[in-house]
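Researcher: Please translate sequence to structure tokens.
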Amino acid sequence: MNSDIEGGRLEGRVALVSGAGRGIGLAIAHSLAAQGARVVIADNGGDISGQVADPLVAESTAKEIGDNAVAFTGSIASAEGARAAVACATENFGGLDILVNNAAILRDGFIFKSDPDDFRAVIETNLCGAWYLANAASPVMRAQAKDKRGGAPYDWGRIVNITSSAGLYGNFGQSAYASAKSGMIGLTRVAAMDLGRAGITCNAIAPFAATRVTDMIVPANDEQAVYKERALKLSPEHVATAVVWLCQPESQSITGQIFGVRGRELFLFSQPRPIATLSRDDRDWDVAGLIAAAADEFEANYTDLATDLESFNTDPQV
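Model: Translation complete:
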């Protein structure tokens, strides 16, 4: 994938990208700017655990992009911080059309060893931060829809949540990270429903790319080690291209969906729906009846406990 469609297709739009100072967020910010969008680089510059903030991370990125970018160096892991980030967009560029929730921290540990404070910190940044930003940005987008910003019908409002295959499959020691990223799927679905009448779409992307997060993965077995070596060495540019695609007018009908990007591969993920049913009309189920019926009807459909690293342990298209 690449983002070489004609520049200027996002002219007039304003984007806010959290975690935009490095990795996938940085690639997304550059790609949106290359398409003509003005971009708020929201990144407090913290390390992968969410500590040791450094404002130069966002400031240097904004300077590199130029006049079409501005840095927001506060944390989005609070409602006040998210509102300030949205205000940064509206005050500097006069509106907000695209929100990319990409900011994430990582504090791994087996469920029986993890610190509750680490769990709360990951949820607060990775999931609550996305909710705070969507909560602050969506009233601005809805007002713009009423004003027919960009023309009628309104088709500029976009929210893209950067989730993870860890939230879909799970991975050893990542109860906090997987919980947050899985929660983003529910957030994506509900935001798509709540904002659909205003013409605002919301989708999720699970990226496969080399980032600070993937660098921190400690393989639990030989298969995962092989996966990390070959499948995670992918440019974040591919993910950025998919984000730009979802922001195009032609993508107005796409909402509430989960995509995966792995090099030149674009996945559309299924979403949980019943695949087998036990039902009886003569009487209530008892335990003995469920033991027998489940073995016959459900057992072949149970989902295995393969991790995301194991499930995608094949060579990507690069």
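Researcher: Any highlights?
Model: The chain has a mean pLDDT of 92.
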